[in-house]
Write a structure and sequence with these properties.
Length: 346
């Protein structure tokens, strides 16, 4: 290991007491090193970064989370550096809403992938964060996804928080796991739910017919719950039949499953406008005026799912106070809503 890499390596030790006798190693490490999340400790175990360090003897690598701890044992955890950064930092503009030594809140634009993956090796939010924060200040959570606690889909815009310390990572991960994070989204859907408010609750998992899609399952999957509220309906019945053409709704997540809002609204019968994966292409009806035609065409041709994460609230990991942020609609979303509002004018 080079001097530069060694200077970035974080070494932690944990001494087992009598009350730790028989504990699983992952439980003992989580209790002894509260700055690290359980998932991060599991990564370190699997990555051969945890050692039993007997006094005067050579360290022995321990990879089994179920390894039983004995009193008097000392364990060494060597957190590898993120440098050389994989992925590399890239100068990608970021709209920073809030930043301190522990975390950073970003208003992510539509079209920006959160972290590198197959088909998107770079040009992601992670690349931008590494360049903005510096790898030394974002050297947590593993090389592929440093600082990433949660995600937004590529074409969903809005608020996202990333951690800059292990303590912040563990705290935020726990809050997400306990569903105590406040997350609210605005969405524009085809038609409108019959009820003005409601709870969509189901099991969500991979579609047995298309592994790239999530779906509501009768058995298996994970519990998912989304609360929604209709904010405004668009389209007078005499223009386009007995049902509204579209609606602006607010969704609040009680759980955080992959594509949850998109899957739930599709299951409800009102997929997101512009959703290429869960919606279907629509042909714009002919309007009675230029404004109507513009609104119908804009909705039919909207190039992404009309979904924006406009509220994010959480407990700060070290300041011990609640933080809450709101992000205005991006220009394309605002233009769509404004055009649809024109359908309600006499």
């Amino acid at each position: 290991m080079s001097d530069k890499q060694n200077s970035l390596t974080d070494r932690r030790t944990a001494l087992a007491g009598d009350d730790h006798a028989g504990w699983r190693l992952d439980r003992f490490l989580a209790a002894s090193l509260p700055d690290f999340s359980r998932s991060r400790l599991q990564q370190l175990l699997e990555g051969a970064a945890v050692f039993l360090a007997p006094e005067g003897q050579q360290n022995r690598t321990i990879k089994d989370a179920n390894h039983r701890v004995k009193p008097g044992e000392t364990y060494l955890v060597i957190v590898p550096p993120t440098l050389p950064a994989t992925p590399q930092g890239q100068d990608i503009p970021l709209e920073v809403i809030y930043e301190d030594k522990d975390l950073i809140v970003i208003n992510k634009p539509a079209g920006l992938v959160v972290h590198p993956a197959a088909g998107n090796p770079d040009g992601t939010l992670v690349n931008a964060l590494i360049a903005h924060c510096g790898a030394r200040n974002l050297a947590i959570g593993g090389e592929a996804r440093p600082g990433i606690v949660h995600r937004l889909d590529k074409d969903t815009s809005g608020l996202l928080v990333a951690a800059k310390t292990e303590r912040a990572m563990a705290s935020l991960a726990k809050q997400f796991a306990n569903h105590t994070i406040e997350r609210a989204y605005n969405a524009v859907v085809w038609g409108s739910p019959r009820d003005a408010t409601g709870l969509i609750e189901s099991q969500i998992g991979r579609s047995p017919f298309d592994r790239k899609r999530m779906t509501v399952l009768r058995a298996g999957g994970k519990r998912a719950a989304t609360r929604y509220k209709v904010i405004e309906k668009f389209g007078a019945p005499n223009l386009i039949g007995s049902r509204p053409f579209a609606a602006l709704i607010e969704c609040r997540l009680e759980t955080g499953r992959t594509h949850q809002i998109r899957v739930h609204l599709t299951h409800l019968g009102h997929p997101l406008i512009g959703d290429p994966q869960y919606g279907r292409s629509r042909t714009a009806p002919r309007g009675k005026s230029d404004a109507e035609t513009h609104a119908f065409t804009l909705a039919a041709d909207f190039p992404r799912q009309a979904l924006h994460a406009f509220v994010l609230g959480f407990q700060h990991p070290s300041l011990h106070k609640s933080l809450r942020f709101e992000a205005p609609w991006p220009a394309d979303f605002a233009e769509l809503v404004a055009a649809l509002k024109g359908l309600n004018k006499p």
